[in-house]
Write a structure and sequence with these properties.
It contains 14 helices and 16 strands. By secondary structure, the protein is an alpha+beta fold. Among the domains are: 110 residues, no CATH class; 179 residues, Inositol polyphosphate kinase (D-amino Acid Aminotransferase, Chain A, domain 1, 2-Layer Sandwich). Helix 4 packs across helix 6, helix 4 packs antiparallel against helix 7 and helix 12 runs antiparallel to helix 14. The radius of gyration is 23 Å and the shape is globular. Pfam families: IPK. This is Kinase.
Amino acid sequence: MSPAFGAMEVEHYSKGVLLEPFVHQVGGHSCVLRFNDKTICKPLIQREHQFYETLPTEMRKFTPQYEGVVSVSFEEDEDGNLCLIAYPLNGDHDNLENLDNSDCEPKSKLLRWTNKKTMLLENEKISKEWVRQHRKEEKMKSHKLEEEFEWLKKSEVLYYTIEKKGNVSSQFKHHNPWSMKCHQQQLQRMKENAKHRNQYKFILLENLTSRYEVPCVLDLKMGTRQHGDDASEEKKANQIRKCQQSTSAVIGVRVCGMQVYQAGTGQLMFMNKYHGRKLSVQGFKEALYQFFHNGKYLRRELFESVIKKLTELKSVLEKQESYRFYSSSLLIIYDGKERQEVAVDSDPEDLEDLSEESSDESAGAYAYKPTASTVDVRMIDFAHTTCKYYGEDSVVHEGQDTGYVFGLQNLIDIIKEIRDESSE
């Protein structure tokens, strides 16, 4: 490394944060990046930014917490490796310094440090790392890495085996092909525009997966209509076609992405939006069943909580005057890590003392029931959201977003069906 570049690294990186791929992104086309353990960021879109700035109080519990705006630059080291660095907006260092970074270990990529060498996020290196992990050594020798990675990206449903040793969550690194695809596309776009522009605004949002050790994530595209009021005729026709050819037109909801940990086999299952578009209503129901099944048993203890939260969200949205959440998604998240189970006839006091340690597989001779588990329901992606309070919109809607509410009700009904059928 040249002395000049080293000096630049010390000066700039002490004020910025190296952004990494957010490995739990399962849907969407906008690149989501990891800022730190508790915060992610994504390119700022004015309409979405306005939504978070003017969010109704009653909706805040159903959206990620908004944490401000940063400036992101595209940079290369002397070897031409690409990376994205977040800096305080307009020199306001408090914007970064006030964020909680206490959860980051000394070896993390936080750029509080001054002379640490950056982690390389160049596309080819990430691609090769994925292939090395996915294929056995002898098979790798007969495949070109680039061709193999292209195949992985095009596969609509993937299973990836995680070694059962150590902390399962620590092995989540560049496993999700969809997040890698979005990250690569973002790097390419910024590289192409580097000569004309190298300062981008990104919004900071709560990392909804941070509380879970092994996040299982379901991304659902909500509503019977996906195109915004400002969409071109071509875009409008394309979005209408996608809705008509999927479950969106029939039940107001379709699978946009999924990540599920299969405890029975130690595998991660990924499903992308292309597969979700092909599902029939019955196929959608089966995908939901698969999302709540860990390969050993159905996570029935999650049903009541998710139904309650979906019902509460539906009630909130029914009262929102003029809002339309076109192309917005709904996330359902829970922890795939196996929770300790207890004998059906256990003393109630034993239930209060349960830890979240893995169940003892040697105790299979007894009757067990799963303990309670947390599940989260959040709305995301508001790039095409509109409301009469925005002012500049040419189209003003009245009343509730009936397409979104319709989808929520059908989602609730289908989950109830799965719950009831599994208990028979």
